[in-house]
Amino acid sequence: MEKINKKINTIEKTNQIKKINQIEHLLPEEIERRSFQIIGEELENRGILLPREQEMITKRVIHATADLDYVRTLCYSEDAVATVKRLIQNGADIVTDTNMALAGINKKALAAFGGEAHCFMALEETARLAKERGMTRAAVSMELAAELEKPVVFAIGNAPTALIQLYEMIERGAFRPAFIIGVPVGFVNVETAKELIMETDVPYIVNRGRKGGSNVAAAVCNAVLYELGRK
Predict the structure, then answer these.
(1) Choosing from 63, 107, 118, 210, which is the catalytic residue?
(2) pLDDT digit string (tens) for 60-112?
(3) 142 falls within a domain
(4) Phi and psi for 221 in degrees, rounded to 5?
(5) What is residue 229's predicted lDDT score, i.e. its pLDDT?
(6) Is 132 helix (H, G, I), strand (E, B) or coil?
(7) What is the Cα Rg of the chain in Å?
C-alpha cells in the first residue's frame, strides 16, 4: 500500500509540474496581445474569416467572454460599424442600462471625441417614475435618455425591457435612437426584444439568442473607441 501511495504521489507531482510548465509568464501589457493572438489562431483553425469591418468588435467580444459562439450570433445592420464610428467621432453620447456597463466603457477615450457616457438606472427620479407607472427602471431610464439633446448610442447589456421600450418609442414616432447595441443576457423576453430591434430601421449591433451581458455591451463600445483611437 505504501508503494502504491508513493507512486500516486509521484504521478500527481509530475502532472503538477507539467501544468506549471504550461503557464505563460507575460507582462500585463502582453496578456491582451497574446489573448487576441489565441483568438485569431482558433478562428483560423476553424476556417472562420470575419468581415474586415466587424473583426475588431467580434474579437473583442470574444476576448471579454472567452466564447467563440459570438462569431455566429453577433448581427450587424448594413454599414453598422461605419455608422457607429461616425457617431462617436462626431461626439455622440453613450447610454447604458447598467452601472457595470458604464464602468467598463473607456470614458476618457469617449471624451476625446466630445462624448459622454450615462446610466440613469440609479437616479431617484427613475425609481419614482418606475413605481408610479408600474414599469421597470430600465424602461423609464430609456425615456430619460431620450431627453438628451444630442445623438445617443444605446448600449443595452442587461435589460430586455430597455430594448422593448426603445422599440415602442420608435414605433410610435416618439424617439429615434442614433444606434442600438442590443446584447442583453437572460431567459425572459431577451430573444424577442432583440428580434424587435432588428425589425426597425435603426442601425444596430445585436447578439441573437440568450447570451450577452454588460461586459459585452462595454466590449462593443470599447472596440469602436480603440479602433478610432488608433487612427
Answers:
(1) 63
(2) 999 999 999 999 999 999 999 999 999 999 999 999 999 999 999 999 999 99
(3) yes
(4) -60, -45
(5) 83
(6) helix
(7) 21
